[in-house]
Amino acid sequence: MNYVIEAEGVTFAYDEHPVVEDVTLAVEAGEFVGLIGPNGSGKTTLLRIMLGLMTPDTGSVRLFGQPAEGFREGERLGYVSQQSTEADSTMPITVREVVTMGRYPHVGLRRLRPDDHDIVDDALERVGIADLADRRINRLSGGQKQRTYIARALAGEADLLALDEPTVGVDADSRDRFYELLNELNDRGITIVLIEHDIGVVTEHVDTVVCINRELFHHGSPEAFAESDALARAYGVEGMGKRAPARKQQL
Ligand code: ADP
């Protein structure tokens, strides 16, 4: 099997507070994975560990078959964090400039060549923001910013796109169009791991649902997820979307 990410027995605590407990899961090349769980259930932490951005306390992570620690092909991983869309909002740079940054790992010390510019143009085109290329990033809507960061990852020729709640604050139509884009990119072979708070939306679009609340409650198809009691167990009986601790006694 061709795995992009292999996490094995991953555990992580902030100080003494355990957030991820003994999670083992793998993401195959070309898979579209939705990572769900209540607020504060460790999704962002697990995703960052899976991308090699944080080191687990125990367990191991492999990226493209190599140990995540010391992984040197960072441009293969396109990560759009919740913060990344805010970080640049005060900088007077254009959409094209942000997307061009995606080429830098490939360019190194040489100058940008015409083919680099072609790749940037193609990335802008593919995510549907070519008409915004010269607009400043701080003049964009949330959805347009997300597309800009995805275009940057495409310009970097990322094999994996990891997105942390990309459609928060986006209206339903824009969200549907955004998922159409993700499905198109996935059809072209890009692996996607996405954190999404709307369970109905995510299960409609992904191949695989990963449901966590500190521990792994489900890793499998949306259909198997719908038939299982993982949702109720992970979210607790207090109700969906509310913060609920993992309920070990129910396992
Ligand atoms: P989710 O993405 O599911 O909302 P997170 O992984 O962001 O969950 O957070 C899991 C838990 O860890 C939460 O209780 C959160 O408050 C805590 N946490 C997240 N980041 C930090 C940090 N840098 N330091 C201490 N605690 C943190």
Largest sheet: 6 strands, mixed
What is the fold-level CATH name, i.e. the topology of the domain at 3-91 and 160-235? Rossmann fold
The CATH C-level class name of the domain at 3-91 and 160-235: Alpha Beta
Class of secondary structure makeup: alpha/beta
- By DSSP, the count of extended strands is 10
State the order of secondary-structure elements, H for helix, E for strand.
EEEHEEEHHHHHEHEHEEHH
What is the overall shape?
A: globular
Keyword list:
251 residues, six-stranded mixed beta sheet, binds adenosine-5'-diphosphate, disordered C terminus, single chain, four-stranded antiparallel beta sheet, Rossmann fold, alpha/beta
SSE layout:
Elements (H helix, E strand, L loop, with lengths): L2 E12 L2 E12 L3 E5 L6 H8 L7 E6 L2 E2 L9 E4 L3 H4 L7 H7 L2 H4 L6 H13 L15 H14 L4 E5 L7 H16 L3 E5 L3 H7 L2 E6 L1 E6 L1 H6 L2 H6 L16
Parallel strand pairs: 3-8, 3-9, 6-7, 7-8
Antiparallel strand pairs: 1-2, 1-4, 4-5, 9-10
Helix pairs in contact: 3-6, 5-6
The structure holds adenosine-5'-diphosphate.
Description:
- It is a single chain.
- The chain has a domain at 3-91 and 160-235: 3-Layer(aba) Sandwich (Rossmann fold).
- It is built from 10 helices and 10 strands.
- It is 34% helix and 25% strand.
- Mean pLDDT is 90; it is low at 238-251.
- By secondary structure, the chain is an alpha/beta fold.
- The relative contact order is 0.18.
- The strands form 2 sheets. It has a 6-stranded mixed beta sheet, with helices on both faces. Strands 2-1-4-5 form a 4-stranded antiparallel beta sheet, covered by helices on one side.
- The structure holds adenosine-5'-diphosphate (ADP).
- Adenosine-5'-diphosphate binds at residues 14, 19, 37, 39-45.
